[in-house]
Design goal:
With 180 residues, the chain is an all-alpha fold. It folds into two domains: 80 residues, RNA polymerase sigma factor, region 2, helix turn helix motif (Rna Polymerase Sigma Factor, Chain: A), CATH 1.10.1740.10; 67 residues, Orthogonal Bundle (Arc Repressor Mutant, subunit A). It has nine helices and no strands.
Length: 180
């Protein structure tokens, strides 16, 4: 593949023919955005890279099923997202240490404090959360999943999902208020 100005359609077509150079180009094209996604679900960068690579294996395996009427970036994002959820689900089942009580937490933080935080700082704070709490909060607050969907995906009760979101909010609020 000598022409770096290939359209996405041409790139996909070459990937379907197992063109390794095209596969590498596709990986490079989506690597940054999808690694950021994986980092929100994993405890560390090594796990995130493993999830990302596993997700790309699925992308290449199922590329022939991609329907061109849908946006490709969204399609690949969903595959990697569900690969990350599968990864978390395996770890949640291993730990089985999920509380079931619900908390009612008011999540109001002075806006001037929040303005001082950058997106990277918020992500770093999220990484301080316990894995299950971080993942549930990410699914709910960032990805827009409902508590019912989270419960189904991670094999927990709706109440447990709500508890994790409230626990994350409570911890993040404490950390944000002390941030300077």
């Amino acid at each position: 593949m000598k022409d770096s100005s290939l359209s996405l359609e041409d790139l996909i077509e070459r990937c379907l023919k197992n063109d390794r150079v095209a596969q590498a180009k596709l990986y490079q094209t989506y690597h940054g955005k999808l690694l950021a996604l994986c980092l929100r679900y994993c405890e560390n960068r090594d796990d995130a890279l493993a999830v990302l690579n596993h997700g790309f294996l699925k992308v290449f395996k199922y590329l022939s099923t991609y329907d061109k009427k849908y946006e490709f970036g969204g399609w690949i994002y969903r595959i990697v997202q569900y690969t990350a959820i599968d990864h978390v689900r395996k770890h949640v089942r291993k730990s089985k240490q999920m509380p079931t009580q619900e908390l009612d937490v008011d999540f109001e933080v002075e806006s001037s404090i929040v303005e001082k935080l950058f997106a990277e700082d918020l992500i770093n704070l999220m990484h301080r959360l316990p894995l299950t709490t971080k993942v549930v909060f990410n699914l709910f607050a960032i990805e827009g999943f409902s508590h019912g969907d989270i419960a189904k995906e991670l094999g927990m009760s709706v109440g447990t999902s709500k508890w994790h979101v409230n626990n994350a909010r409570k911890r993040l609020k404490q950390w944000i208020e002390t941030y300077e």
